[in-house]
Amino acid sequence: MKKKGKIFLVVGLVFVVSMAILGYGYFIFKDVLFMSNKFRNGTTINGIDVSGLNKEQAQNVVATKLTDSRNEIVINLHHKDKTWTWQGKDFEVDNQIMPYVENVFNYFNEGNLIEKKAKLEKLNGNTAFNIPYGTILTGLNEKIKTLALEIDKPAVDATLNFDVTQENPLVFTDEQEGEIVDQEKLLSMINEKLKIQQVIDVNVPIKQVKPKIIKAELEKTITKRGSFSTNYASSSEDRKHNVKHALDAFNGMVVLPNQEVSFNDTTGPRSAENGYKKANVILNGVYVEGTGGGVCQSSTTLYNALLNADLEILEVNKHTLPSSYVWLAFDAMVSEGYSDLKFKNNTDANIYIKTYSDNENVYVDIYGKPFPENETVRRRVEFLGAIPHPGDIIVPDTDGQYSNKVTYKGEYLRLKYPREGYRAKGYIDRFKDGVLVESTLIRDETYQPQEGIIIEGIEEVTEGITLPPNTVTFIPPQEQSLVNEDNVQKKIQKENPSNYNP
Q1: Contact at 8 Å (CB) between 93 and 73?
Q2: 134/150 Cα distance (integer angstroms)
Q3: What does the alpha-carbon distance between residue 295 and residue 269 come to, in Å, rounded to a whole number?
């Protein structure tokens, strides 16, 4: 009897517990769904009661209601002193709202009974859901994009204009902040306001856009790297014209990183058709008149400015005769098809060139990336000495080229004076904080001595002919030069005056 009582007691307890569990499950099930494939009682979507409806029925009811109610929607958008108004009737409602309906349905159907119960408790009895109007009003995103086109003002970067008409050709423009519509935020704001009312006012949200290039920073990226000038005050007007005309071809030039430039290609033929006039050039060690005389002063001025700017020189050549307007070993002779000045922008930024002149000098300024902090470069010449000249030679006028000036033997015409030669080296010295840290040999030049040339007539003096007194003095070979580092440029200037220089 005792054993049977215990069995009945256990069975009774199991029954009670089972019923409790089933009862609790029933209440959970009852609270979660009205039926397994229908919406729970009291569930609304955009204020539309979908209780007891399945997903397809809910989609149709909600789509119809939203389509009808969209006519009451008015969206007023404000920015500064302007307002845009969009009417709901101007939009179509996307009737493919099943994904949103399913999201609401699945919210309650995913998980076990206890998890579903927890969802309801978390909602605190609120089972109203809203499908964002912005996602179902067809074309709203496109309208927002069109609105943005009216409002958006892109940021404007600071710029550099290289204006050679200005004394300082580096002309900078100021940067400007931009503003653009925050399209994602605007859509969100419209959706939020349409949850509570159908006539809404929205201030268009704006994002400020910073420019990428700031004037103050841009100004730090460029400076005058180097400059040079030479004097042509004593030159003829035609020679001055040629010097300026050749340099004009470089005025305003922008040289890209790693770009190579040829002087001859840039200036073009030395012809009258190309704007050049007649002036002195060197031919076989003698100054003669030729079209384009003076262009070598242009190339030399440019060359030394390039050196001061620490740019790479690819080709440079000396003159036969030293030039009075520049140090030895720092001249740059150019001749079509024979000698050129070539250089390369060996920096990682653009190089800008300005050339200009006055009545006495021509100038070349070169702008580009600043040197490393407290670093500078300087040119330096080392005079190695003079080479004695070989004196005069007498050349008979066998071809009669000078027959209008000399006819008979014993008649002399000096065509050229002997000139001593020179040796010099050119260096680029590099300084850091005023201290020499590197010295680079860039030129080792020898200007060969020149023999004097005296032309003599070739006809024999016959009886009855008296020759005029000879005014040409024969100059013997030079034994020793008195030229030194201090006076060599003065001597070159005296022998090769600027107005004769090519």
Answers
A1: no
A2: 20
A3: 11
Looking at the fold, whether 288 and 429 belong to one and the same domain comes out as: yes
What's the chain's Rg over C-alpha atoms? 48
| Domain membership flag for residue 177 | no
Q: Which residues form the domain of 441? A: 222-495
Closest CA to 298 of 267, 271, 338: 267
DSSP conformation class of 71: G
Amino acid at 159: T
Name 305's Cβ contacts closer than 8 Å, sequence gap at least 6. Answer: 226, 227, 228, 364, 365, 366
CA distance 105 to 45: 11
Q: Say whether both 481 and 379 belong to one domain.
A: yes
How far apart are the C-alpha atoms of 416 and 458, rounded to whole Å?
Answer: 19
27 occurs within a structural domain: yes
Buried b (16+ CB within 10 A) or exposed e, 40-61: beebbbbebebeebebeebbeb
Model confidence pLDDT, tens digit, residues 142-158: 999 999 999 999 999 99
Q: Is residue 239 part of a domain?
A: yes
pLDDT one-digit tens code per residue, 98-148:
777 777 777 766 666 666 666 656 555 555 677 776 666 778 889 999 999
Helix intervals (H) in 133-286: 133-136, 140-151, 183-194, 215-218, 237-248, 263-267
Backbone angles phi, psi at 469, to 5 degrees: -60, 140
Q: How many CA atoms lie within 13 A of 371 on its CB side?
A: 18
Longest dimension (CA), the chain: 185
Whole-angstrom Cα distance, residue 252 to residue 328? 29
Q: Per the structure block, which two tokens stand in for 341?
A: 């000045």
CB count in 10 Å sphere of residue 18: 10
> pTM of the full predicted structure?
0.74
> Do residues 149 and 156 lie in contact, with contact meaning Cβ atoms separated by under 8 Å?
no
For residues 137 and 228, membership in a common domain is answered with no
Please, which residues have CB within 8 angstroms of residue 478's CB and are 6 or more apart in sequence?
388, 389, 390, 391, 418, 420, 449
Tokens of 476: 């013997």
214 is written with which tokens?
A: 């700031």
Strand order of the sheet with strand 435-447?
A: 375-387, 421-432, 435-447
493-311-307 Cα angle (round to 5)? 20
Q: How many domains are contained in the chain?
A: 2
Query: How many Cα atoms are found within 13 Å in the side-chain-facing hemisphere of 13?
Result: 5
Percentage of residues of the chain with pLDDT beyond 70:
82
55-69 and 98-109 helices cross at what angle (nearest 10)?
130
- List the structure tokens of 419: 């000139």
Residues linked to residue 412 through DSSP beta bridges, in sequence order: 456
